[in-house]
Structure formats: structure tokens, C-alpha cells
Amino acid sequence: MRTEPGGCCCRRPVRANDCVANGEVRNGYVRSSAATAAAAASQIHHVTQNGGLYKRPFNEGFEETPMLVAVLTYVGYGVLTLFGYLRDFLRHWRIEKCHHATEREEQKDFVSLYQDFENFYTRNLYMRIRDNWNRPICSVPGARVDIMERQSHDYNWSFKYTGNVIKDVINMGSYNYLGFARNTGPCQEAAAKVLEEYGVGVCSTRQEIGNLDKHEELEKLVASFLGVEAAMTYGMGFATNSMNIPALVSKGCLILSDELNHASLVLGARLSGATIRVFKHNNMQSLEKLLKDAIVYGQPRTRRPWKKILILVEGIYSMEGSIVRLPEVIALKKKYKAYLYLDEAHSIGALGPTGRGVVDYFGLDPEDVDIMMGTFTKSFGASGGYIGGKKELIDYLRTHSHSAVYATSPSPPVVEQIVTSMKCIMGQDGTTLGKECIQQLAENVRYFRRRLKNMGFIIYGNEDSPVVPLMLYMPAKIGAFGREMLKRNIGVVVVGFPATPIIESRARFCLSAAHTKEMLDTALKEIDEVGDLLHLKYSRHRSVPLLDRPFDETTYEETED
Amino acid sequence: MATVAEQWVLVEMVQALYEAPAYHLILEGILILWIIRLLFSKTYKLQERSDLTVKEKEELIEEWQPEPLVPPVSKDHPALNYNIVSGPPSHNIVVNGKECINFASFNFLGLLDNPRLKAAALASLKKCGVGTCGPRGFYGTFDVHLDLEDRLAKFMKTEEAIIYSYGFATIASAIPAYSKRGDIVFVDKAACFAIQKGLQASRSDIKLFNHNDMDDLQRLLKEQEIEDQKNPRKARVTRRFIVVEGLYMNTGTICPLPELVKLKYRYKARIFLEESLSFGVLGEHGRGVTEHFGIDIDDIDLISANMENSLASIGGFCCGRSFVIDHQRLSGQGYCFSASLPPLLAAAAIEALNIMEENPGIFAVLKEKCKRIHKALQGISGLKVVGESISPAFHLQLEESTGCRERDVKLLQEIVTQCMDRGIALTLARYLEKEEKYLPPPSPQTP
Question: CB atoms < 10 A from the CB of A549, how many?
């Protein structure tokens, strides 16, 4: 995962060759051919195979953590832990008031519900900066949002609402990639009409009496949007994964899952009963090795051949901002006859020239991906999930999916919102609004990332991903960053342990087509200020700033091969 | 004396060496050289591990054929073609083009097409749009959610409530948040699928007791007590839970809650109560099975219900004491890692709660109607009614099974189709045959 010092761009030698050959300069770095040739020679078989798979340059970078920062972060956590022990001690001996809820008197002799140590992190570290999360809002989660103000007089143990509302905060935390989270406009009107006609709830499962004509319409539309034979939709994105993976694989099958997969994929894989093996994040050599070993050696101990092998990957990984290396995964899948399950929760609608997701972004054939899964929460402004694929697959899921048999079908106005927004993206509603949104998002992404890198922050992930993680590292800066940004009227999301590794806490920006250039500029100015205030500009590879190009619409088309 | 003896031994040895016959010396010499050779030679493994050559590996990779991704589904699989409902799924429903009276959806209080709910949802739609675009932790918490949690907690007279965006995920996320590997859960055999998935995700020890049989449960609890006495250290860290449903979906019966509470205090196990069907149905004010039996709500550690039945919305909630519920805000998987409930659905649920609080008379009306239908269906030949008389969801099972499940299912499907032709919409209770632990017999279900 860590790149060699001196390179914060692509890791593969072939990329440098490609770049040089095409006369492009990526961020001012071109690796010398001598070094790459030596490296290339050792991997010649693998590299030449994969070099031709990418139609566009793949720029992903994870800059190494500076040593001093890592040491200071550990020291910070050490100090916090010591204080944690001290406070626990004081609370135990009643010197300090104990704020959290306790067990009932009648049940004091029951086995305690929680282990003390389990909650150590929550009590002593999370509580200090708890005000950065669960911020309640009271307007539509668009580009600007109204946040309800809350105060705490006992150091975040309890919150009181002052009644004030912080208005027009620039929203860089909601997953609103194409800007469909609106309370006016054609989508909202259509949803209102369906609400009047059909009501809100359904009160039944898909297989019983909950299958409305609206659901059938939506499924046909989703199938044509993705370019697959058939699709099926569900009421919740998390449940789509956790209820359908067990229907597809069972004991005797093998699941190869990426290190940083989402909790729903992990839960679905666990519930299925299959054997799970984890490969390093986005690392194709690791995946290939696992595939080879699996087929050659079979199941552990009995040596029987595996029934099926399923590779679980995501389109965009939301904590890293990286995009899956789909062309290589598909090449491997074809060579070793495995099946591919692609979770496009964040990438559907947000990547690709027509918004069809990561398959469109790489220019591949959707038939190559066996199971395309995604959610409607992010780019479509609704809720729910879908699975698309061949007709046999969908027929099987209609009869055997846990969700179809036991869980309620999606609500009609939500379905209508998805239908309208999808038609808009596809251009079927007669306007070019969809195309404009997609282009606007791509421009916003490139501009924002470039400016942040120029300022000197460490930014993870792929250049085209709308999820932008900015590294903070130290625990105190997590709280400070969140609060300072809110003071300046910008709402950001900060993440720490356990969602990320312990020293790699970060702030995560989610860009949206609804953000105008002025909003981005304001946000960038504030981030610059806060970055200077908190000393967040860790990057040692300040890229050569490219000639300050005007923010024009042709930026997107230029880089498309 | 010792040194003289030693010297004498040494001298003796040297003398013996001189006097030994040649063949003896040669033999000894050869043996010594052999030992030295063995010591320095490479050891060989007893079990030969076949290290495959690269060519063999490639052949294996070529030969391996996986199973097809999904097995083929026959065209006349009963669940393949869904009934298509056109128009709103309220009391009069249009199924596959036929107009029927709806006896198949869980619309117990008839709130599906209530204009007040629609108005509240519309107002919320105009204010906040449809989706929330984020989980609760990242700007996905709306004032409506906080309102709904408050109202539910007040309605159920508990300290706190927490909302999930999907009914199935509620209990399936709540159980693994508390019960981990090594804990023991006593669960009824007729528990619904969502509970089974929650238990599977928790990796705890599951002990099943016969449906509604308190003696069987007591037997299991006693056995566990004996085990505990053998190993008190382990017993001190093993949590115990009893998971029951208020009104069982699979049988339509009510759980004997007073006895359960007694067992809870005697054997020190916590109770998780799943009230999806009984919330808004049982009890004088619709507070569920605790009100029905008059039990103090604090005796139950966690009550979980979904809002998809009586409240005619989507989603689910858990309520109980803050000590218990607050834990789920950080460790309930379906809460932390999933987008929050769309605000229009939450607004509809609040309005439904308002209606429930304003007319507590509807619960009595519902009970009356249930009793009437139950009595009226008693005399049908060949079918028996399974479920309590006040339960709004009950099963009609074949009195005598034909012996084979598939034929039973076909016969019941015939009954259902005929009813639909005559304008009554029923539905065959659906189960995933391979996944359920204890398969209930097939039956059409009439909520």
C-alpha cells in the first residue's frame, strides 16, 4: 500500500512508460526509464498483460505517513489512554461523577451486559469529540444545509438543543454526488403524485402481496440503465448485501474479499457460511496468488475442489477514495473462472461519462461482471439497493433471496424518486440535466483535488473519485478540524478509529454536482486557513502546480482517451 | 583411593585396547564412523509433500470447472412470478387485474390509505426531499428522526428508542450487538427468520425450546445452571438471553410473558421481545404484549418492533432503558453502516402514532373483528384455523396433510387462486425451505 518515497502517483512501472510514451506528465513526476525497465523485466509477464487493459491512465496514490507524525500520533493516543485509566479510576471511587447510564437495581446480580474494556475507547476517547458526529439537520441535505445547534454542559455526555439553527452550512459530508437531494423539481413532484395515489407503506413482502406495478417498472428501468438483462430491487442497501450473498454462496464455496470491504459485504459473507479469504486492498498480485492457491490446493484438509469462487470488490471504497482496478479483476476472473460481485454503492451515477458507474468509467462490458450490486441512496437521492445480472441470476434471486421472502418491499414514493432521477440521468426525460450534472461532478472532483494537493495536504485515493479523504492523523486534530470547520460554516465528516486504522484518522469530503465553483472556493479558502492553524499540511511532495488552467468545461473531455 | 581407582581403570582400558582382537577394533571403528556420517548427513522427511510443478499447477487450473453461479430455476416454481398489484395496496386491492378484498397485507389498523398520513408525508417531502444521503453519524440525522424516537419512547413508556431504516434489519442488528461468541441464547422454535439471522450473525450458543412450552425452557435453564456450577468462572462472564416474539408470525399465538418474567429473575437471563405483530394490536392502548398482560415494561430488557405492520410505514425501532439502547448507536450494524430512514416515512409514522394515541378505541374494534372472523372460519371442512382468536394474523392449515409438502403447497395455492377469483385476496405463507430451522407446515396466511 505504501508507495516508494518520491512517487505519489501510480505504482506500476508500466504507467510511467505509458505516460512518457504518450507525452503526458502526471503531477510533474516521470519515473526514469532505467529504474522502470529493471522493475518491469522482473514482472514482465504480468505487466505486459495488464498494461494494455487500461484505456485511460489510472492515478491512485497513498502517500506515506511522515515518521514524525506517526510517532506523535502514537504519543497522543498513549496520553489519552493514560488519562482514560485515570478517569476510570476516579469514577470507580466516586471522586468524579459518573454520567453514563447504569444497570437496574433488580438486575445488578445478572451477568453484566457489557465488558468494561469494550467500552473504554467509547467512554474516554470518543466521548471527548462526540459533537462532530450525529449532527442533526433540518433541511434537505443538498449543497447547503441547516444544522440544529446543540450545546453540552457536561463535556459531551448529553446535548441540549438551543433552538437556534445554523443556516446555509456548506455540506461536504452528505453523499449527494449528482445533486438529486432536492425538495423542488420534477423528481419531488413525481414522488408527491405517487405518494397521493399509493400511500406511504406497503405492509407486505415481495412474494406475497407487496409487489406493486411500480416495482416492476423500476426493475426494468434499472436493467436498461445498467445494460444487463434483468434487475431486482430491495428496500435497504445494507440488507441487499447481507441477504443476497448467503443466497448465492454457501458452505464449500470460497469468497475472496478485499481488505477494506464495507461491513454489509463482510456480514453477508459471514452469514453465508463460505470460507473467506482476504486479499490486500486493490492488490492484484495478492488476488492472483489467492486464486491460484485456491484452485490448485482445493479446500483445506479435504483437498476437494471448491464449488465456486466469488470475488467481492467495491467500485469506490468510501474511506480511501480508491477505485477498484476493474480491468485487471475481470482479466483474472476470466482466467481462473471465478465469479465477480461488484458493489457500486458509491460509484453508480458518480463515475463514467454517462454515469453508469465504474464499468462505464473503464469502458468495459457490463456482461463481464456477474453480479452488479448498488444502492440508490447516494446518487439518486432515495433509498434502497439493487442487484443486476443475467436473467437466470435474477430469477433465482426472486425465488430464493431472503429479502424477497421475509422483508417488506420498497415504499412507492421512494421508488418514484428513483425512477425519475434515473430517467433524468439517462436523458430520457428530454433534458440534458443529467449529462450536465455528471460533467459538473467530474469537474468539481478534479478541481478540488488539484487545489488541495497544491496546498500541501495529504490526499488519498484516485484522482477521479468524488470521495476525498484528507489525512489528519492525530486524535486531537479530529475534533479540532470538525469544530473549526463548523465555526466557519462548513460541515465536514471526520473519521477515526475503528472505521480507519488507528493512526490514520482523516476528514472525508464528498463532492457533489450541486456544489458551485464559488462554494468550492469558499470551502478551499477555509480549509487552507484551518490547515495552517492546525498544521495539517504534511505532504512532502508538493506537486509542481500546473499552469493555472481556467475552470472550463472541456477539462473532462480532454483526459478521456 | 578414588584417583588410584580411576588411574587403574584408565590403565585397564588402554591395556584392553592393546589386547583386543583386531576384528573387534575394526568393527568398533566402523560403527563410530557410521555414527559420525549419520550425524552430519541431511535428514529426509518421512512424509513426502508433493510440491507440484508449475506445469501441473497450470493443468489443474485449466481443468477446474466451477458450478454455475446459480442453479436453474424451473419455470413453474411457485414463487417465480409475483402477483402484480396495480394501485394502492389498501383494503380494496387490484391483484393481477382482479379486484379483491385485501386479506393478505399486514395493514392491521387500516392506516395505509389514511389521508392524514399522506398529508404528513407530503409536508415532509416538500421540506426535506426523499432520501437522507447519509448514515445517522454523517448528517443523516433529521429532526424528524429525533422526534420519532422521542414519541416512540413516550408511547411505550420507556427511556429511549432507536430507529432503523428497515424492519428486517432491526432485530437482526440488535441481537448481535449484545450477544457475542460464548453467550447463550434461549429462543423459541417458531421464531421468525429475522431472529434466526440475528442469532446466526451473533455466533452465540443457541438453545431452542419447544414453541410456547415453559416447562421445556425451564428444563434447559436448569441444565444450564448445572453446567454453571461446574465452571463458575466461565459462568460469571457468560451472558444469557431469552428471545421471544410477542405474537408469533409463524403460528399466530401469544407468548406467555408473565411466566417468562418469573423465569428471567430466577435464572438471571435477559429478555428480548420482538413485537412486530403485537405492537399496535395487543393491549388496551396498543402498547403490545406487555400491556396485554399488565407487566412493568422495565422488566423487559429490549423491545424490538417494526413499523411496517400497524404503523403502515417502513422501518423498525427498538426501545428500552437508555443503558441498553444507547449501546446500539455505536454497535448496531444496521444503524451505523446504513443510510437513515427517509424523513417522509418517519413523518408518516409520527402521524400514525398520533392517530393511535387519539383513538384508543380502534384496538378494541380490531379485537372484535378478529374474534368474529376467527369464529366464522371455524367450521370449514378440511381446514383448521391456527392462531389465537384475538390475533389479526393467523394461518389456515390443512387438517390432514397429503404427506408430501409439495402437494400440500399446490393444493393450498389452488385454494388461494380460487379465493382470488372470487374477490378475496389471500396469500400462501412463504418460507425459504432450505434455510429455516424448523419449517412450519404450509398454510395460507390471513392477516
Answer: 12
pLDDT tens string A459-501: 988 888 999 999 988 888 999 999 999 999 999 999 988 788 8
Both A225 and A313 in a single domain? yes
Domain at A508, CATH number: 3.90.1150.10
Q: For every residue of A130-191, which 3-state class applies, written as one string?
A: HHHCCCEECCCCCCEEEEEEEECCCCCCCCEEEEEEEEEEEECCCCCCCCCCCCCCHHHHHH
User: Whose grid coordinates read 399466530?
Assistant: B252
Which 8-state DSSP code applies to residue B91?
Answer: S
Distance between CA atoms of residues B1 and B4, nearest Å: 5
Residues A90 and A150 grouped into a single domain: yes
Judgement on whether residues A460 and A421 belong to the same structural domain of the protein? no
Q: Residue A205: which domain range?
A: 186-426
Residues 6+ apart with CB under 8 A from A466: A177, A316, A346, A350, A441, A444, A445, A510, A511, A512
Regarding beta strands B302-306 and B270-274, do their DSSP bridges make them parallel or antiparallel, or are they unpaired?
A: parallel
Is the complex ipTM more than 0.95?
no
- Chain B: residue nearest A208 by CA? B427
CATH number, domain containing residue A346 = 3.40.640.10
Nearest-CA residue of chain A relative to B139? A135
Residues A378 and A400 both lie in one domain = yes
- A315-319: average pLDDT: 90
Which of A426, A451, A482 terminates a domain? The answer is A426
Distance CA(A376)–CA(A417), nearest Å, equals 10
B269 min Cα distance to partner chain A (Å): 7
Residues B177 and B156: beta-carbon distance below 8 Å? no
Rounded to whole angstroms, the Cα distance separating B134 from A176 reads 9
What are the beta bridge partners of residue A313? A342
Of B106, B121, B334, which has the smallest distance from its Cβ to A200's Cβ? Answer: B121
Peptide bond into B135 cis (omega under 30): no
Pairing of strands B383-386, B394-398: antiparallel
Q: A234 with A337, same domain?
A: yes
Low-confidence residues of chain B, pLDDT below 70?
Answer: 1-8, 44-50, 401-403, 432-447
Q: Is A263 on the interface with B (CB under 8 A)?
A: yes
Residue A43 included in any domain: no
Does A7 fall in a domain? no
Domain assignment present for A35: no
Q: For residue B159, give the nearest of B300, B281, B277 by alpha carbon.
A: B300
Domains contained in chain A, number: 2
Examine residue A15 and state whether it is found in any structural domain, yes or no: no
What digits encode the pLDDT tens for the residues A52-68? Answer: 677 777 877 788 888 88
Confirm if A489 and A170 have CB atoms less than 8 A apart: yes
| pTM (whole model) above 0.90 | no
Q: Which position has the higher pLDDT, B444 or A206?
A: A206
Q: Cα separation of B286 and B246, whole Å?
A: 12
B185 by DSSP, 3-state: which? strand
User: Could you say which residues from 247 to 286 on chain B have a Cβ atom under 8 Å away from some Cβ of chain A?
Assistant: 265, 268-270
Q: Are residues A307 and A448 in the same domain?
A: no
Interface contact flag, A139 B127, Cβ < 8 Å: yes
- Picking from A379, A403, A426, the residue at the C-terminal end of a domain is A426
- Asked if A448 and A399 sit in the same domain, the reply is no
Indicate whether A165 and A275 sit together in one domain: no
* Exposure letters A406-425 (e unless 16+ CB within 10 A, then b): bbbbbbbbbbbbbbbbbbbb
Among candidate residues B396, B391, B441, B437, the one with its CA nearest the CA of residue B193: B437
Q: CB–CB of A223/A356 below 8 Å?
A: no
Q: How many other CB atoms are there within 10 angstroms of residue A245's CB atom?
A: 26
Crossing angle of helices A213-226 and A412-426, rounded to 10° = 30
What one-character DSSP code corresponds to residue A374?
E
